[in-house]
Amino acid sequence: MKIILKALFLLGCITVTAQNSLSGTITDINKEPLIGAQVYSTEFHKGAITDENGKYTLKNLPNGKVKISFSFIGYQEQTKTIEFNSENKTLDIFLLESVFTIDEVIISTPFNKLQSENVMKVERLTAAAIKRTGSPTLMSGLQRLAGVSQISTGTSIGKPVIRGLSGNRVLVYAQGVRLENQQFGDEHGLGLDGAGVESVEVIKGPASLLYGSDALGGVLYLNPEKFASENTTSSSFNQQFYSNTLGSNTSVGFKSSSEKWKLLGRISANYHSDYKTPNNQRVTNTRFKENDLKLGLGYNTTNFVSELRYNFNYSLLGIPENGIKEQTTSKRPEYPNQKVNNHILSLHNHFFLGKSKLDVDFGYIFNDRNEFENNPNPVLRMKLKTFNYNSKYHLPTFKNGVESILGLQGMHQTNKNFGEKILIPNAKINDIGVFYTINKQFETSSLQAGIRFDARALETEKHTVIDGTNTRVFNPIDKNYTSFTASLGYKFTLFDKITTRINTASGFRAPNLAELTSNGVHEGTNRYEVGNANLATEKNIQLDLSLEYKTDHIEIFGNGFYNHLNDYIYLSPTGATKDSAPVFEYTQHNAKLYGGEFGFHLHPHPIDWLHLESSFEMVIGKQQNGDYLPLIPANTFKNTLRTEFSIKNWLQNGYSNITVTSALAQKNIGLFETASSGYQLVSFGLGGDVALNALKFNTTLSINNLFDTKYINHLSRLKSDGILNAGRNIVLGVSFKI
After folding, report:
1. How far is CA 207 from CA 37, 288, 511, 543, in A?
2. What is the pLDDT of residues 541-564, one digit of tens each?
3. CATH number of residue 68's parent domain
4. Domain end: 57, 83, 98, which one?
5. What is the 3-state secondary structure (H, E, C) of 241-267?
6. Among candidate residues 389, 391, 395, 506, the one with its CA nearest the CA of residue 451
7. What is the DSSP string of 364-399?
8. Under 8 Å between Cβ of 334 and 317
9. How far apart are CA 325 and CA 228, in angstroms?
10. Residue 629, SS3?
11. Distance CA 523, CA 320 (A)
12. Stretch 103-125: mean pLDDT
């Protein structure tokens, strides 16, 4: 690693040749200066804030084309692409008041286009929007997005579900690094804290072209907190209190930047008791504790940017068992529980080479998972170490305006067991993938296409496990998987003001270790699971059609999809019993999923402070034989009435909202599932920026399940025990700069 760092630094020094700067003034339509407006280059990780006269300056910009965004709260964001050639430029910007959402640059797609320019429809949720939901975990807050839900174990553990696909079929990226944390288990959460996350982007559908195996169902891409603007220093304090779990979430952050160096740090603590149902009963051992540390160091010269980040997350998670027992408000999980230490180290480097650009990223993830049954000795302890790399060369734009990227990605992973029992064997995995993608921007349309080849080599060790009078053998396997994937997308204007996106993409997923090697009772499922070493790679082809009509006062959207999966892997009962549990074997057949999200956003004139948002999301999943797929979320309506307001000088950017979520009954169920009843939940939110003389802070109030409704979500892992989801939860949050 030291050699790599020295080489990258040397290359960065060699490429330093240009001295460019951009300056100007940002005003509103009345030419009044906007104080505190943000100027930011996403690809260069460099920003500035306007002064009291609305003036800004960005220095040390590279030669070539640089994309720069200009934004201010309550105004439409603008993005300009400016070409430099060893010169200083001046650019004045006029921002218009915003009606709908800001048109942000999307990081998770290859060419980092504005959402309005993207061929692919990508959902985006900011950290502020997640905070307003009052959710105790990052994953539960993401359910606000249509088409996104979670498989939950109490309030602490949530696994993402995108359009009916979950587990290893959904890839998570944090700090620009592929997250690997034994995600095959339903009771294995993300191991990520929402503090220090700037925003989350969601790609729905196959993204294997960009990310390789496991991106068959979609991608959650978590953008980390930005560094401070040049020559500024700030500290912040955030606190949330939760009435239902008697919980507390505290976060303290610091950031400082000079012209070349950037530094940030954030430490967080999250503590919760057992959650309370509408029956006024606490669900035993759903309590949890989480501590999180994030550090960042950035360096940039004119043509070179490097960003080093580290995240340590410690989680102690209670595992509910045997229903509701002794009532307590303790925050210390009892047995059984999980203790997970998750380390993420990432290094991102960008080399600006005039008309081309090279991105070279490295990541190291160390996941130490401990599971305890009834004593301090871990029954299961698995150490997963993952090193991955990702290089993308942005070729010079062709004369016809075609942009292109040539990419190389790979991963080396090892799994080792140190506990009393073995769930999956010691193993070694090596991935390598190469891809090429192009983008052509026409006057009113865009075309994007790409192709990719991947190879995976997987080896496991032999294990003989003696459990009382039973002997279980994990036979060694040595497998190689290869796959070609491709994508094609076209964005155009079908009719006046109707933006149309048509995308087709293929994806793949190599079988995971649990599917290949399982041989024993999987705790929490009451099943004896048997792996199948002969499983083939899952492959799919998905067709997406997106229509969006947008004026100054109304937005109507419809997103439909059809997803055909070859060799879909699932558990099938054999009818036998072993170790007092029914035996299930992993097998595979073809399957299909289809559905979509539909809705509107009304912003009536002249009532500029009022917003009405409504959406409906549905997905149906079936096997080839007609049986329904398991873990498919219920069809859901979401309706939100939102107001925006300010009160004199003491409350700015104020908001209030009432949301009604109506989940329909889910009767399309898979094997070993039971049907779920429909329900309706009401939530309320209120907040804004408060200024009391010299004291300034932001405050939020959220009330989830306002009427204490009794319900069970279809994707709750406590559903089989008839345990209700959480009742009313009042969440009060406050944040301010220190």
Report:
1. 34, 33, 17, 12
2. 999 999 999 888 899 999 999 999
3. 2.60.40.1120
4. 98
5. EECCCCEEEEEEEEEEECCCEEEEEEE
6. 506
7. EEEEEEEEESSSSS-SEEEEEEEEEEEEEEEPPPPT
8. no
9. 48
10. coil
11. 12
12. 82
Joined together, the tokens standing for residue 419 give: 């506990």
Contact indicator for 73, 93 with CB cutoff of 8 Å: no
Query: Is the separation of the CB atoms in 513 and 425 below 8 Å?
Result: yes
Number of domains in the chain: 2
Is the residue at 158 inside a domain?
no
* Domain interval for residue 69: 1-98
Which amino acid type is present at position 731?
Answer: V
Query: What are the tokens at 107?
Result: 């990081």
Residue 497: which CATH number?
2.40.170.20
pLDDT of residue 164: 92
pTM for this model (two decimals): 0.89
Q: Is residue 451 part of a domain?
A: yes
Reported as a single tens digit per residue, the pLDDT across 201-256 is 999 888 888 898 888 889 999 999 999 988 899 999 999 999 999 999 999 999 99
Give 179 or 87, the one with higher predicted confidence: 179
Q: Report d(CA 403, CA 401) in Å as an integer.
A: 6
Count other C-beta atoms under 10 Å from residue 710's C-beta: 13
Q: In what order do the strands lie in the sheet with 64-71?
A: 46-49, 38-41, 64-71, 78-84
Last residue in a domain, options 98, 122, 140: 98
Which of 16, 39, 35, 19 lies closest to 27 in space, CA to CA? Answer: 35
Structure-token match 């690693």, residue found: 1
Structural domain contains residue 46: yes
pLDDT at 177 over 70: yes
Q: Is the pLDDT of residue 88 over 90?
A: no
Q: Is residue 323 part of a domain?
A: yes
Q: What is the distance between the alpha carbons of residues 323 and 274, in angstroms, rounded to a whole number? A: 12
Question: What is the DSSP secondary-structure string of 304-350?
Answer: EEEEEEEEEEEEEEE---SSS-S-----S--SSEEEEEEEEEEEEEE
**Strands, E, within 470-625: which ranges?**
470-474, 478-495, 498-509, 519-522, 527-530, 538-550, 554-578, 581-602, 610-623
- Residue 565 · residue 590 · CB < 8 Å: yes
